[in-house]
Amino acid sequence: MKPSRTSLKIGELATGQDLELPIFQFEPADITAPSVYIQANVHGAEVQGNAVIYQLMQLLENCELRGKVTLVPLANPLGINQKSGEFTLGRFDPITGVNWNREYFDHKVDVAAWYAEHSHLADGELIQAYRAMLVERCQIRLQSEWGVTTGQQQAVMLQRMGHEADIVLDLHTGPKACKHLYCPEYDAEAAKLFSIPYTLLIPNDFGGAMDESVFCPWWQLSEYVGAQGRELTVPVSAFTLELGSQEYIDLDDALVDAKGIMAYLSHRGVVADSVPAAPMQRFACYLKDYKKFHSPMGGMVEYLAKVGQPLVAGEPLANILRLDQYGSSKVLTPLCLSQDCVPVLHFASASVYQGTELYKVMTNVFVMTNSE
Amino acid sequence: MKPSRTSLKIGELATGQDLELPIFQFEPADITAPSVYIQANVHGAEVQGNAVIYQLMQLLENCELRGKVTLVPLANPLGINQKSGEFTLGRFDPITGVNWNREYFDHKVDVAAWYAEHSHLADGELIQAYRAMLVERCQIRLQSEWGVTTGQQQAVMLQRMGHEADIVLDLHTGPKACKHLYCPEYDAEAAKLFSIPYTLLIPNDFGGAMDESVFCPWWQLSEYVGAQGRELTVPVSAFTLELGSQEYIDLDDALVDAKGIMAYLSHRGVVADSVPAAPMQRFACYLKDYKKFHSPMGGMVEYLAKVGQPLVAGEPLANILRLDQYGSSKVLTPLCLSQDCVPVLHFASASVYQGTELYKVMTNVFVMTNSE
Amino acid sequence: MKPSRTSLKIGELATGQDLELPIFQFEPADITAPSVYIQANVHGAEVQGNAVIYQLMQLLENCELRGKVTLVPLANPLGINQKSGEFTLGRFDPITGVNWNREYFDHKVDVAAWYAEHSHLADGELIQAYRAMLVERCQIRLQSEWGVTTGQQQAVMLQRMGHEADIVLDLHTGPKACKHLYCPEYDAEAAKLFSIPYTLLIPNDFGGAMDESVFCPWWQLSEYVGAQGRELTVPVSAFTLELGSQEYIDLDDALVDAKGIMAYLSHRGVVADSVPAAPMQRFACYLKDYKKFHSPMGGMVEYLAKVGQPLVAGEPLANILRLDQYGSSKVLTPLCLSQDCVPVLHFASASVYQGTELYKVMTNVFVMTNSE
Amino acid sequence: MKPSRTSLKIGELATGQDLELPIFQFEPADITAPSVYIQANVHGAEVQGNAVIYQLMQLLENCELRGKVTLVPLANPLGINQKSGEFTLGRFDPITGVNWNREYFDHKVDVAAWYAEHSHLADGELIQAYRAMLVERCQIRLQSEWGVTTGQQQAVMLQRMGHEADIVLDLHTGPKACKHLYCPEYDAEAAKLFSIPYTLLIPNDFGGAMDESVFCPWWQLSEYVGAQGRELTVPVSAFTLELGSQEYIDLDDALVDAKGIMAYLSHRGVVADSVPAAPMQRFACYLKDYKKFHSPMGGMVEYLAKVGQPLVAGEPLANILRLDQYGSSKVLTPLCLSQDCVPVLHFASASVYQGTELYKVMTNVFVMTNSE
């Protein structure tokens, strides 16, 4: 089965040129499984997700599908095309500085009020009504007489597509990073299916990202009706997959991650074929234990700790080289932590200001035991 | 009286060079009035505040001072020196994209708990204890083992100086703007003293800016103890003065604003000499009525509405010129609002993407009657 | 008569999106006059030329045309859409740093060799053969197996269109500037027709700009055959019009410049209607007398000298404000020149590094007497 | 022996802060060998040269020196500190776009005239007089009443130090690159001493770089007097060492290159100790055979050819991935060359515009036979 291709206008440049997204869609005749929405490259330099979508579409063409799958590569055309020197300055809007992945809409649903009006509905209808409300609110958001920002328009148009799906995957990368997954705590079992060794378990807080914008309203609903004595499993799944390092395309590695996604889709019944998860040890920590380490000084950086490899307390993360201090002990300063950790990513450049985020590390890491 | 000059290290560059702030201080022998803290140029392109500090220091040298006055021009050395083409890219951190004026620390004081422990104190002692707590929390914030970002370090070091003063003025400008003042609602009378015709009355919400970081914790305290039946006027004043347009220095106009500040300081007793406020009609609106208008399309912009001049509903703010559409009606699109407003600022560039913030306008504007 | 509209692909972005130019063409049935090529906005922030083309096309629609007129607004889509903060970073390629107006192709024709082969041709045939050679060389340049840079491809595709015309106008602006014209010395009379008071008379040196890329090969031919005793007037005219300041659109002022262009086209017979030149005093200097003044120090700049207004030796161009030096004589430094000049443009930002080009000034200015 | 440390002011920022270079100098009491000047990090992201200087200074401290050695790490403080996103935008001046390594001064010495006046001098005196002239011209250049640009001031101050030495090493890196050396043709033997496998042999053309600015005037003199029948070996040596990839610090690898430099200095007698060149096969090509390959299309790039590894004609350099073309043959395009080559460097980002310089490759590569 071949996907259909459409496009969606999400903005206009100063020259008048349209900003358009390519949208690929696999729509089986007989739908019995959840629908899926996958996007990539919302941060301009994080290109590998496109390669994963490329490999995934080829796999999907050759399997039996039971749910609709929508794929949006190159999801931020303005960011992708925004070069600054030999680098893609696509992490934030070049005009406003706002991170493209913090522009999604916080519905701030008054769940109590909404549920008071809809509590009579059966679960299926309840879910349908709630989803319709989320989609409509995105629509209203886009139609403000005062307009919305460039980044909000793009984000809310993507989010609207996300709300219409049951499963949402947002494909990112770190700067220099090992593969890791942002997974809501309620969905921790899913983390054992992707080809990703490290998982961050995130709570029900909206921080502006796509995955949160999709699952938070549902999680809130689930918790609220739970408190009212009605059990309602969160009916959507949304994850951010961090597929290694930015500014890097590797088709072979993309196939590995495409197969991990297939394993998850197989598990969810979207793909009829049985695709096993890749065997690997999987580790996790809670988001509160995911720490940012900022450089205590300016200088040149020799990154010593490898991403994805455990680091014992007291072993150096990095050396700071300060040639201006040659002749003193400050010429070379090793930076260490006082606790064990797993470095997950580090800064992309080899020179930093004081305060530059040097490493992100997982602490209090635990093995995800296989409950199945 | 001449000011003393010291400097404060607030960061380190990649080359190892220190980032330093010049600090000027007038400290009269006999202090009977509130202390004052004034900073300028936190956004790199907003340079006119430096010229105002220059004129103000010359006025202060020649008057009788009764309170300590601390002045910090050039308050963001990294931002000021960050050029991009013929422009100063100093609105946000070039690495993270975070607005330099959204990095201040939200104390999130648990006012109830704090007051439970300190309610026995008399007003003077209560204020002293609360202030000491705010200063100490800034200090703790700066000493995190994980470090803080470049922008947080700069902001919290400025904020700590702000907490030590009774009056805080943060000197900014708009992109292309008329003069306007951000004034907390509780301090509206103060707005009649500065040489600024337009005032935005802001509520007790922390949005990350310097003025809010200073007054919000006090306003919260005042409201809380008020609810407990104890009257405590907010003991600090903090304002953001928007002194016209960025990328512009005008010494004569700086003198006008320096005199406006002198009128306020005179009113507060900091300056013994009587300095009258400049006679002018002053207008205000509430922050909720201060609207951002985003361009509904990409194109070239002819800005038609002048900043600081009322605009009747239906009159055009701007024309969007779209040469690619020559021959159709879309080649020239006038943009209008459906309500009366006062345009306060517009975008600095003459070409926009769809969604670029084109104008900020005041609606529901009212005259500030002179109650004195 | 309405223009036709076509488009030309001049590049491809990272997302795969085409970079396209809109091309408008007036082509009268009966052609008896020179052909004209006009482009605008090769530097991204220099947008006013688009407004001039807008006004000019409306004038052309209502006049009797005798020559073909090709107009290319928005000629650098990549540069126009490249924002950095509230500014258009469109002066140089964001990847390579190369000025978009220094990418034109230097034919380095071996005129002696070429003329040895073609000296038998009559003037008309000679011109036709030389033009065909220039166009073909552009074509070859674009077909290199190693490819050409993004900027070269754009430039050479524009240049090829320029070579096909007899009259080439390249519409630019300065940063903060008065109107001025780059005019080759052999064509000085033409400077009296545009609505532009200041003219720079440029010699036969190729510096990489569009106008030079068009006229230099012809000027070389003319000089060479002149030395061989054959008189051949340079058969092409090419000018760069600097239409005031960047980041600024003004439709009324655009009409003034459109009429100036009409006066020139009328003089050249392209427009049958008689359009007189606007009466104004016109001044000129030679390019060697057009001086760049670099700031001798870093600091904040109060621009004092107005562009387009003569400045007497010893009068200040600008003040440099250095708050870090408050208390010393260095806090305010006026910058003066030791000779009379006319400031033509100044830097766009109000803060500079040591060495930033602060002003460009004309020296040894003379009145262009009207020889007609 | 410990080096002395001084500093040199080479500019001033907008805040007034000085731009300073640290200068380290080893000056033996008894000088019998050529003097050496080594600088690093003129391009802001090319940091590894600092690490090499760090290792080299430690080696120099422990050897017997016979010539003066001057080392300038961190040679472009403005460029090093100029961040754009997670990258150092230090290849070109952020205001003007001019490459920091194309700002050196072209003396354009009228060698014939100069020699006419100085031909009576013996070789030693001739060299001394010529050197004094070059240094003085740099000085004059810096004292222009119109000032020089920020980049010219920095470059000419560095160049002046270079002219005072007999041996000049400029330490750079490529974007993603293997180690390679720019070596003037007259000095090809020297290429066998550094720990660098690939050499580009460059002719006597000034392109704006440091090494050329140092050796070109001497090469011209040597050639001119040679034509007059007087043999004068070029008395200076100047090389650009490209030490791998930018944005990368590796102290172990820096030691390898420091030892390579020691081998050269030992060969030249600067270091009394005998330091052998590292055994390795060394390859070279002429600069005319060093080719830039520009991407024929926009898209995402999978770099396939490894730098420093020979590539056979027809083997792919890279794949261009174009998700917007999924479903057509254009979704994946391998890019090949029709001749054998050694890829030396490739672009740093994994997405490109049409025309982006994708790879630089050596063609017509030959082995440098060891003549010793």
TrEMBL record, chains A, B, C, D:
Cofactor(s) needed: Zn(2+)
UniProt keyword list: Hydrolase, Metal-binding, Zinc
Record-linked Pfam families: AstE_AspA_cat
Domain Succinylglutamate desuccinylase/Aspartoacylase catalytic, first and last residues per copy: 33-267
Protein name: Succinylglutamate desuccinylase
